[in-house]
Amino acid sequence: MDTSTDRTKQPMAGASHTGPLAGVKVLDLSIALTGPYAAALLADQGAEVVKVERPGIGDIARWVGVAVNNMSAFYLACNRGKRCIAVDLGTDEGQAIVMKLAAEADVVLQNFRPGVIDRLGLGYDAVSAVNPDVIYASISGYGPVGPYRDRSAYDTSIQAYAGFAATQAEPDGPPTFIKQNAADKVSALFASQAITAALYARAMGRGGQHLELGMNDACVSFLWAEAAGNEVLLESDGTMPSSFNAGFAPMRFADGWGIVVPTTDADFAGMCKALDVPGWDDPRVRTVAERRKNRDVLEPIMDMCYAMASNFTQVEVIERFERERVAFAMVLSAAEMVDDPHAVAIGMFEEFDHPVVGRARLPRHPTNFHGTPANLAGGAPALGQHTDEVLTELGLADRIDSLRSSGVVA
């Protein structure tokens, strides 16, 4: 392969100036995952993002999980393409600096608990007074109102509240949590979509606005579509599980795991044929409607499919499933995904050199914008890496030394 055009081997580019959000200025006051990841997605799409962190420790995400030279993979992934200024928001001068940035921003993003940002003098009312067209996004665990508004919220607690843990549990089994920050990332996707929608509304002449997003709201909305059937259809008979996916389970092949999703009639028939299991043409199971009514006939056929799976290697069964055009996938780890032929063919991952962590790899932005190309926005910044640069742009070059010596910036 000609590595000059291989996206997986190129050094990471700087912020995309071709993306659909080129020219949009984002001020990121958030920490951890939800806000930073939302801002990183905006950066991939061309936005210029300035991240504000506290001097000394910075965003706690810098220190979580696998790290090289005191920068974690977590921080690298969620803060790519941003410039970082270290400012003490507990000082009047620090607040004034951030307000100057907010006054010039198209988007301000923060995820303090309700009321905290207002006490710092940087809430929506204060910022919109000097920047009426601002899109101001506030993310919190349970939103700005209600009896839980002041509760601390982490991904796992939101998974518990919003239904992730209950949905993952086996019947009559204990709650089961997804072993990743699914609630944080779901909320980040909702936040980035809401921000771009608000930018569109502003471009159409409808002005700036305040966006308030509770992680609980985002996750309930995410789950409700197919995981709360009996709670959506209030006149259902309750004989089926609320979760559409409750019956799907992995298959054990001779040399690994995979899954088949026999949703359509063709998928069901194809799965049985591929695994040499008879009975798929029984009139009592040939259609979705009949399978729903005749679960006593369906279940022994499904049990046989799972039993027969162990007779085939993954290579053998992949050929059979593809021939029958069955919806399936093999279970891959993150390490296996990197070298998967499809991932390599589509350039799913980009490798790049980072001045702090060395060689690194991230998945590219998932959407191909054919008119306004999006790209991974660049490496994550060191703490305070761009403090002097940003202060100079704000006209504060002559005060940098005194601000630093007094601990306002770093």
Q: Name the CATH homologous superfamily of the largest domain.
A: Crotonobetainyl-coa:carnitine coa-transferase, domain 1
Radius of gyration: 25 Å
Which range does the strand content fall in?
5-15%
Counting DSSP E segments of at least 2 residues, the number of strands comes to: 13
Major sheet: arrangement of strands: 5-2-1-6-7-8
Derived from helix and strand composition plus strand pairing, the structural class reads: alpha/beta
Most strands sheet: 6 strands, parallel
Proportion of helical residues: 25-40%
Question: What is the CATH domain class of the largest domain?
Answer: Alpha Beta
CATH level-3 fold name of the largest domain: Rossmann fold
Annotated CATH architecture of the largest domain: 3-Layer(aba) Sandwich
Uncertain stretches of 5 or more adjacent residues: 1-14
Domains counted in the coordinates: how many?
2
Number of helices: 18
Whole-Å distance between the termini?
45 Å
* Shape, principal axes of CA atoms: elongated
| Mean pLDDT metric | 92
